[in-house]
């Protein structure tokens, strides 16, 4: 079963900026994926609590990105 997260939830992940395992918190952010000019608002993502960098895109947010044409 897929875990569903909400804003404020905590987890852990490998931060691509800190290069180490870190604690994360889920927040709604405007994101722009590499190789596109599309910006998507209010996407729920985990954010590193040390450097404030987005660390991943959870599976539950993929459908929102597909709605705007990313990943088609």
Topology:
Blueprint: E1 10-15, E2 20-32, E3 39-48, H1 59-67
Antiparallel strand pairs: 1-2, 2-3
Description:
This protein is mainly beta. It is 12% helix and 40% strand. The chain contains 1 helix and 3 strands; from the N terminus they run βββα. It has one helix at 59-67, and strands at residues 10-15, 20-32, 39-48. It has a 3-stranded antiparallel β-sheet, covered by helices on one side. The protein starts with 9 loop residues before the first strand and ends in a 5-residue tail after the last helix. The model has no long low-confidence stretch (mean pLDDT 90).
Task: Summarize the structure in short.
The chain is mainly β.
- Contiguous uncertain segments of 5+ residues: none
Q: How would you characterize the largest beta sheet?
A: 3 strands, antiparallel
Strand content: 35-45%
Quickly count the helices: 1
Give, in order, the helices and strands: EEEH
Class by alpha and beta content:
mainly beta
Helix content: 10-25%
Oligomer: single chain
What is the residue-averaged pLDDT?
90
- How many E strands? 3
Order of strands across the main sheet:
1-2-3
* Through-space gap between termini: 24 Å
Anisotropy-based shape = globular
Mind telling me the C-alpha Rg?
A: 12 Å
């Amino acid at each position: 079963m897929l875990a569903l997260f909400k804003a404020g939830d905590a987890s852990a992940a490998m931060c691509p900026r800190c290069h180490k395992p870190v604690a994360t918190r889920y927040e709604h952010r405007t994101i722009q994926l590499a190789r596109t000019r599309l910006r998507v608002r209010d996407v729920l993502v985990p954010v590193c609590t040390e450097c404030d960098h987005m660390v991943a895109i959870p599976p539950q947010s993929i459908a929102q990105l597909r709605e705007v044409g990313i990943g088609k």
